[in-house]
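Lay summary. Proteins are chains of building blocks that fold into shapes, and those shapes determine what they do. In this project we predict the shape from the chain. Here is one chain we studied, written as its sequence of building blocks.
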Amino acid sequence: MKRTLLIFVTLLASCRSAEKKPGAASPPVNDAKAWSGQMQNMAQEVKKLLPYLYDREAFQAAKNHDLVEQYLKEFSQVAHHTMPDAGKKYLGDDLLLEYSINNLADDLARSVKSFEAGQFEYSRSVAKASLSYCFQCHSVTQAGRSAAWEVDKLPNINLAPLEKADLLVATRKYDRALSYMESQLNSEDYLKNFAFDFESLLRRYLALIIRVENAPRRALKELAKILSHAETPHYIVEQAQGWRQSLTAWEKERKLPAKSGKLLFEQVNKHFQKAEAIQHYEKDHAGDVEYLRATAQLHAGLKSLHAPEEQARALYLLGRAYEVLDELGSWNLHETYYEACVTKAPHAETAQRCYNRLEASLYMGYSGSSGTHLPPEERERLKRLKEKIQ
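And here is the predicted shape, written in a compact code that computers can read:
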């Protein structure tokens, strides 16, 4: 199974230098205004580039060559100099920021290089894919909602439903994003003709309404409509039945804020147990609602966990959740959390579990019909982490 980068086509206002590895220390930045300023700079660069990214002819036209190259380079430079520490006010010491920022800068640098080499369509594809890292951060919390910016008046943008939904989330238009998603989820033509995109849109909808809106009742109403459609594929029905079960139980719960690390882990473990009871196999998406709720609590909990052992445990659980929520986390986010878990508390019991899951994920990712071919840098990565544990 060869690794491929899953493309969402969303818009990020949260990314950073490709030179920095996840878990590495950053210079302290305490001013929330610094983060807001960086995000506004990012937004301005993205808005200039968007009309070309979503128009193949305009992107490749000779008359636009110099302008597109300029916009790509300016966007790449802003991403490269974005510092994640300033964003800790919103997500705490969470690797999600560094992961997104590192990958955005990496992808944009590759896009610029490809454009200079005349590989225009590949450059455009990579630049669009690079914008995917926004949904991860902006579907976790409403914090920073004031950073929203308008895209309605941008010219020459012809978006597919998934792209439009992701763009609205990226620009923090949550109410409009949910309403638009619901309009598409209620469209029998969209379900019938684009079942794969329909499922992807539905999973995005769940992520947003669970982690940002905290509204199980609204989600239940949408699922009822979807389950009533005669055209709904059986595999979506099976998943939706699991989601409905979780949402129904959630609606009846009494809210208990996790005021300690112990209580946080008790609540998260209950979500994992419920998810596993619904799933037919380890990565069955029927348990997504429970995993989404667990990630919401863990992302918020990282702000208040101070002991390295507790932080490592939270990272381990985030890794496990994102192994299932692959489409919402990107292809190797879980591995980033596992590696950080080992580094955070290498002599804790959790470190060995993180290492084991990372090792299994890497070997699975580099296995195919010709066998397993783990690159030398990944072997060195595992060796380095194993030495830390020992």
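What the prediction tells us: Residues 1-162 form one domain.
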